[in-house]
């Protein structure tokens, strides 16, 4: 209906649309329905968001009798989380992203200059598809130093974020109806990627104590999944860390049942107490693990640098997939990252960042301690996984929170089985302390009116 109204030019180009609340009242629908419609219009490029003040009509929309019929219907794809993250609110608790003011911005212009001085033709050439050789060698040394593993730089593939690595895996190893095993809950965009590839999904639960390894074995034996995608260190969204004994057994099972493990390690350096246990790939002796390590979150999301450690037998398949995706990640980004990564500043940055994030986590926990909501305090990562008490309905809470300009992620977004959830994910990494306090206060107020 909104599409037709835009096509009918009810609002002119660049005119602000009425608020979600107004439209919901006017059209006698729930506010969430309007919110979803706005997200769809945004995806279809019919509206855009400006300065967080609201939704505006895009210019140059040609109305036609087929206005809402694309020339070719796309195969359905979704990215639930990113739709919610683009909601226009003042207090985003949806962003498992680090506050940009905590990142080393002040140094990057110097590194950009240094890179142009050292490699004047850096923008005049493609990078090798598998990644810059200097960066791959540097990362091989880094993994030897930090994980005690010998990894040849030939086994390293640089990707444009962990998200691309997950996508390359899905493209390379899955055909529709192949079985994929996922943790429940699981990182939402990974679920969407595997679903988008037509995979049949089976799940095993992950809790604060890791997996029930007998359940993992039973699932591998019964369903024979081609791969098991895991995020075992400061798991998103639960914050869980899978213990070393389970990591060891997991690689044994993977070898026995011929199931490829895809280990997504996006948060290992964000720990608040002791360092987490070594990655699953370090226990692997049978080349059963592809390891994905992102450096986006806490160095520079904008550079989009991640690395995969690939068993040699799988490397060429992944390099081909990478070449078909983008012919290699931008060389400039890789070189800027390399020079920062090799500097002493990286360690100093980590030390400060861990303290800043721990403080923010504690601020969030302090505010939530006034409620009967429950969570296990994570030893690292960016999120609290909060269990709401009986009587709190998550969608009603989200609607009430959006009305107070606060957004969080409902637990169901992380459920590969699409079951109803009484959990919500609150990220403490994006807002500063005072905004975090205010955001949580508003959320709790929304909850008080909701129960
Ligand atoms: C578990 C997990 N994997 C992958 C990603 C994507 O990371 P990147 O920015 O490296 O693409 C995220 C981002 O939230 C994540 O939480």
From TrEMBL:
<dbReference type="InterPro" id="IPR051446">
    <property type="entry name" value="HTH_trans_reg/aminotransferase"/>
</dbReference>
<dbReference type="InterPro" id="IPR015422">
    <property type="entry name" value="PyrdxlP-dep_Trfase_small"/>
</dbReference>
<keyword id="KW-0805">Transcription regulation</keyword>
<dbReference type="InterPro" id="IPR015424">
    <property type="entry name" value="PyrdxlP-dep_Trfase"/>
</dbReference>
<feature type="domain" description="HTH gntR-type">
    <location>
        <begin position="1"/>
        <end position="60"/>
    </location>
</feature>
<keyword id="KW-0238">DNA-binding</keyword>
<dbReference type="InterPro" id="IPR036390">
    <property type="entry name" value="WH_DNA-bd_sf"/>
</dbReference>
<dbReference type="GO" id="GO:0030170">
    <property type="term" value="F:pyridoxal phosphate binding"/>
</dbReference>
<dbReference type="GO" id="GO:0008483">
    <property type="term" value="F:transaminase activity"/>
</dbReference>
<protein>
    <submittedName>
        <fullName>PLP-dependent aminotransferase family protein</fullName>
    </submittedName>
</protein>
<keyword id="KW-0808">Transferase</keyword>
<dbReference type="InterPro" id="IPR036388">
    <property type="entry name" value="WH-like_DNA-bd_sf"/>
</dbReference>
<keyword id="KW-0032">Aminotransferase</keyword>
<comment type="similarity">
    <text>In the C-terminal section; belongs to the class-I pyridoxal-phosphate-dependent aminotransferase family.</text>
</comment>
<dbReference type="GO" id="GO:0003700">
    <property type="term" value="F:DNA-binding transcription factor activity"/>
</dbReference>
<dbReference type="InterPro" id="IPR015421">
    <property type="entry name" value="PyrdxlP-dep_Trfase_major"/>
</dbReference>
<dbReference type="InterPro" id="IPR000524">
    <property type="entry name" value="Tscrpt_reg_HTH_GntR"/>
</dbReference>
<dbReference type="InterPro" id="IPR004839">
    <property type="entry name" value="Aminotransferase_I/II_large"/>
</dbReference>
<dbReference type="GO" id="GO:0003677">
    <property type="term" value="F:DNA binding"/>
</dbReference>
<dbReference type="Pfam" id="PF00155">
    <property type="entry name" value="Aminotran_1_2"/>
</dbReference>
<keyword id="KW-0804">Transcription</keyword>
<keyword id="KW-0663">Pyridoxal phosphate</keyword>
<dbReference type="Pfam" id="PF00392">
    <property type="entry name" value="GntR"/>
</dbReference>
